[in-house]
Structure formats: C-alpha cells, structure tokens
Write a structure and sequence with these properties.
Distance between the termini: 28 Å
Radius of gyration: 22 Å
Strand content: 15-25%
CATH architecture of the largest domain: 2-Layer Sandwich
CATH topology of the largest domain: Alpha-Beta Plaits
Helix content: 40-55%
Largest sheet: 4 strands, antiparallel
Number of helices: 7
CATH superfamily of the largest domain: Lrp/AsnC effector binding domain/regulation of amino acid metabolism (RAM) domain
Number of strands: 4
Number of domains: 3
Strand order of the largest sheet: 2-3-1-4
Structural class: alpha+beta
Length: about 190
C-alpha cells in the first residue's frame, strides 16, 4: 500500500532520490504532509461533522463511487490526517461541570523544563487541552472539574505543586458560546 504510493511518486518525479526519501519516511514512520485537493477537503469536512456516516452516503454527496472514497479514508488514516475517531460528549446532557482556562507561567523556560511540565500536564485527566504559548504566559490549559472546590484542589494540589511553576491565572467559563471539533480546511 505505502510502497505503491512511493513507487508512483518516483515514477512521476525525479527518480532514485525520492525512493530513498520514501524509504526514510517509511523507516521513521513519518510521511510528508499530503496535499489535499477539493475532494479531499470536502470528504474530510463530511467526516468531521459525522464520522459515523457510511461510505455510500459520502460517495453520493461527492458524486463518486464507494471505492475511491474508501481508499481516500484509508489513506488519511495511514498518513495520519485522521488521527482517531471519537464521540463528542454534550456536557449539558450530563452532570454540571466547570470549565476553567489556566494561564501558567514557569520560572525557567529552558526546553527541558518546558518538556517536564508538558509531560506532567499530559498525565492530568482534568486537563483536556494544553498549549505552549509565546507572550506573557507560557501555557494555556483547558481544565474541566466538578466544581470550585475541585478546581481549588486541582490548581493548588496538582498544578501549583509542579516544580518550576511560578504563576497561575484562572478564568472561569460562565457560558459556552461556541464549541467545535471541525478544523477548517483552508
């Protein structure tokens, strides 16, 4: 499968050098970013809106047969364009949860310190998103907890207890205006 893509790429471009690069990408498990055509973008938009839609329905919407749609989806999975399939939970349909954005500053911004903090945050189930920032703060974390007491325990007992944390600022969500998992394909 992957070899076919590499072989075709060689045939259409400059020869042996591409084979070596293809072999290197294959060996390292990394592939160049795929170029997405208009059909790819439309197909990915449909999948982002509902990943449970079947191939036949997608093919009808794209005016294609099922086979090329299926092959594109498998290629997206193989190349890492589709990372995984998940269920999006409607937080209003379950018990009330509190969403908090934490702005975290570190004492030292050395790479090894940033990596240590990042690894620690990855292990915290309360943190559902995290970003390394440039600017006044070093990290932005999206945290979900049951209530204010649970947030206090998280921020003081877990987050502030990490080495190298110098400051934590918190903003509490009063009302969610928009939430989307759809990545715009520009």
């Amino acid at each position: 499968m992957i070899y076919e893509g590499i072989y075709t790429y060689i045939y259409n471009n400059k020869g042996i050098c591409i084979l070596f690069l293809g072999w290197l990408f294959l060996k390292q498990g990394k592939f160049p970013m795929p170029k997405l055509d208009a059909t790819d973008k439309r197909l990915l938009e449909l999948l982002q809106k509902n990943s449970k839609v079947n191939v036949k329905e997608i093919a009808e919407q794209l005016n294609l047969t099922k086979t090329p749609v299926y092959e594109r989806i498998k290629r997206y999975e193989r190349e890492g364009v589709i990372d995984r399939y998940v269920a999006i939970i409607n937080m209003d349909a379950i018990e009330h949860l509190m969403v908090v954005f934490c702005y975290v500053s570190l004492e030292k911004q050395k790479l090894d310190e940033i990596e240590k903090f990042s690894r620690a945050v990855e292990e915290m189930p309360e943190v559902i998103e995290g970003y390394l920032l440039g600017g006044a703060d070093d990290f932005l974390l999206k945290v979900i907890v049951k209530d204010l007491q649970a947030y206090h325990e998280f921020s003081s007992g877990k987050l502030a207890a990490l080495p190298n944390v110098s400051n934590i600022r918190s903003s509490f969500v009063l009302h969610e205006i928009k939430r989307s998992s759809v990545v715009p394909l520009l």
